[in-house]
Amino acid sequence: MSGFDLNTSAGRRRAYLDYLVNDHAFLRVGFQNAHWITPELVRTNQPWPFQLAWWKKQGVRTIINLRGGFDGSFYALEKDACERLGLTMVDFTITSREVPSRERVLGARDLFASIEYPALMHCKSGADRAGIMSVFYAHFHLGLPIREAMKELSLRYLHVKQGKTGVLDYVFERYLAEGEPIGQSFIDWVMSDAYDPAAIKADFRSQWIGTLLTEKLLRRE
């Protein structure tokens, strides 16, 4: 549960101060890293409450939070805004430096088959977690091949594959090297013995320059 009480003026001020400073929300006042994948789904960074109100005016009905962070100021403010605006908020936690479990992959497939569109999907920066989930959306919901869907993990969206966040790209690269050549679909490969998240992560090697950028300079979540 959130430790931020929005029922009082003091509590709301405390939440916004934490949001501004600790969640770096000041960087996102005028920059949303927003990109429509299709007319039914847009990917962004963490939205402010006033931005959620704007997205509702654009027709958005569902907000997908990929960050988790249920005790954070951003979550308290986002949940409160969605309730006030009549937006459906869905939590689907995924990480930016781990190989997703089979359950996460299947969960992503089911998520995109069940939500009400148009929808907005966000992590903190809109680059990494939003990136891998956009690949899943493009593949599972739109039917694009993995090789084409992977364009959602791109520097265009501020994703840096040379750092530790490049493990997300590596998941799909492994499929293209192992599963696709023998005729396996992506989901069949994920469900096979070849898909070992711990082993795949252990095989991945980030580059020092990318790691410096994502971990030290950008401090990606």
Task: Write a brief caption for the model.
With 221 residues, the protein is an alpha/beta fold. The chain has helices spanning 9-21, 49-57, 73-85, 102-114, 129-141, 146-149, 167-178, 186-191, 197-203, 208-217, and strands at residues 35-38, 41-44, 62-65, 88-91, 119-122.
Q: If you had to describe this structure to a student in words, what would you say it looks like?
A:
- With 221 residues, the chain is of the alpha/beta class.
- It has a single domain, classed as Alpha-Beta Complex (Protein-Tyrosine Phosphatase, Chain A), CATH 3.90.190.10.
- Helices cover 45% and strands 9% of the residues.
- It contains 10 helices and 5 strands; from the N terminus they run αββαβαβαβαααααα.
- The protein has helices at residues 9-21, 49-57, 73-85, 102-114, 129-141, 146-149, 167-178, 186-191, 197-203, 208-217, and strands at residues 35-38, 41-44, 62-65, 88-91, 119-122.
- It has a 5-stranded mixed beta sheet with strand order 1-2-5-3-4, with helices on both faces.
- Helix 1 crosses helix 3 (73-85) and helix 4 crosses helix 5 (129-141).
- The longest helix is centred in the first third of the chain and has 13 residues, at 9-21.
- The chain is globular.
- The two termini are 20 Å apart.
- The model has no long low-confidence stretch (mean pLDDT 92).
